[in-house]
Amino acid sequence: MCGIAGAFGTTNIKKLNILQTLDLMKNRGPDFSDYYDNKFKKNYVYLLHSRLSIIDLNKRSNQPFRINNYIITFNGEIYNYRELKKILIEKKIKLKTNSDTEVLLWLYIIYEEKCLDLLEGMWSFAIYNNKTNQMFLARDRFGEKPLLYSNIDGNFIFGSEVKFIKSLSKKNYQINNNKINNFLLYGYKQLSKDSSTFFKNIKSLPSGHYIKISSKKFEIKRYWKVNSNINLKISLNEALEETKKLLNDSINLRLRSDVPITFCLSGGVDSAILASHTAKRLGYKINTYSIIDNDSRYDESKNIKKIVNDIGCNYKLVHLDKKNFLGNLKTTIEYHESPTASIAQYLHCCLMKKISDDNFKVTISGTAADEIFSGYYEHFLLHFHNLKDDKIKSNREISIWKKKILPNIRNKFFRNANLYLRNSNFRDHVYDGYKKNSFFLK
């Protein structure tokens, strides 16, 4: 989690503003911070970076990083940088570092925006060419790394956080009341439906998009979207073997780090698989961290202890401090300068704080596994809809669902096995309760 920020436009930003911004950015990158500035005719350019050292801890990899006319500020990690380095070596390019940053910049120099097709990882970065006076910014395919920006009166300012943009611009951005009302009305599920933020004139670059900017041009373009190519002829065993291979390859790539790695362990299937595979199949000695709730309905400590005993790892149980809930919540909101999306985000922040306090820089979690592997109650109902033409199989699986799953479901919509069979376009559950909530926002 490095910090990046910068500006491109007609405003000459004072050095004091830059230094104040770098000071704010240290929370994201405490290991090193610096900036690049340039004037091209009437245009001013600034690139700021605060480093959290993960790959190649040597100072030679500090940022902003420069190769000839190209300068980069980069947050994230290119997991397949070792494989991509081979492309550069074949082109007789002599690398000066062991970092993914240098590999990324060289790939952009060679392929420009097409380099994004080669990358496996998470990223937000800005690259400036001081010969052509052009800047290129990009965000990873799933929006794992933040990239916020403001583009007003010929001045483009970007950053990992809203506060960086405020600090560089010294503008008083007004609160986006419409965004707040929509959040109160529809909940967290609408937060990423567009590029707006909780501040007017500050936007979030959508995942899978890039920006090209010069003194005469500003362009946003989507470079990637999901390609769902489903093979219905594959057997169950073939699917299982391919899943194992993909999981193994994915974990192996993400274990590339020059600092120790820890794992989040919830007690559920997803995080347990990641930790277990790493410890038992790949032979790593790992550390795990788990949130423990004293409420018996949400206490998964028994599952967690079974897992850690099985894989023989070091572990820490982080007990929730409910007495200071409001204080911690306020701190989280003030840091992100936005409402907390859900209680899950709050819990995640508590867990990350403990991990950071113990000086771990890299954490692997099972986030999004439920979406990928159909782990939510709604997915059963979608599956029943897909089986609607096979009555025998449909009845058998619904019968099993009623016995094994239904007793655990509280949501009134998901207790109905025929929900999508009766109406395949049903979507009232997405913004559950918004009609009642609208009464309070009139």
Topology diagram in text:
Blueprint: E1 3-9, H1 15-25, E2 32-40, E3 43-51, E4 65-67, E5 70-78, H2 81-90, H3 100-111, E6 121-129, E7 134-139, E8 148-152, E9 155-159, H4 162-169, H5 177-186, E10 203-204, E11 209-213, E12 218-222, H6 236-254, E13 261-264, H7 269-281, E14 287-292, H8 301-311, E15 314-319, H9 325-336, H10 343-357, E16 362-364, H11 369-372, H12 377-386, H13 391-404, H14 419-422, H15 434-438
Parallel strand pairs: 13-14, 13-16, 14-15
Antiparallel strand pairs: 1-3, 1-9, 2-3, 4-5, 5-6, 6-7, 7-11, 8-9, 8-10, 11-12
Describe this structure in words.
- Helices cover 36% and strands 21% of the residues.
- It is of the alpha+beta class and 442 residues long.
- A six-stranded antiparallel β-sheet has the order 2-3-1-9-8-10, covered by helices on one side.
- Strand 6 (121-129) and strand 7 form a beta hairpin.
- 26% of the residues are buried.
In short:
The chain has 442 residues and is of the alpha+beta class. The chain is built from 15 helices and 16 strands.
β-sheet strand percentage: 15-25%
Counting H and I runs of at least 4 residues, what is the number of helices? 15
Number of strands: 16
Query: Mean pLDDT, as a whole number?
Result: 93
Please summarize the sheet with the most strands: 6 strands, antiparallel
Order of strands across the biggest sheet? 2-3-1-9-8-10
Helix content: 25-40%
Radius of gyration: 24 Å
Structural class: alpha+beta
* Shape field: globular
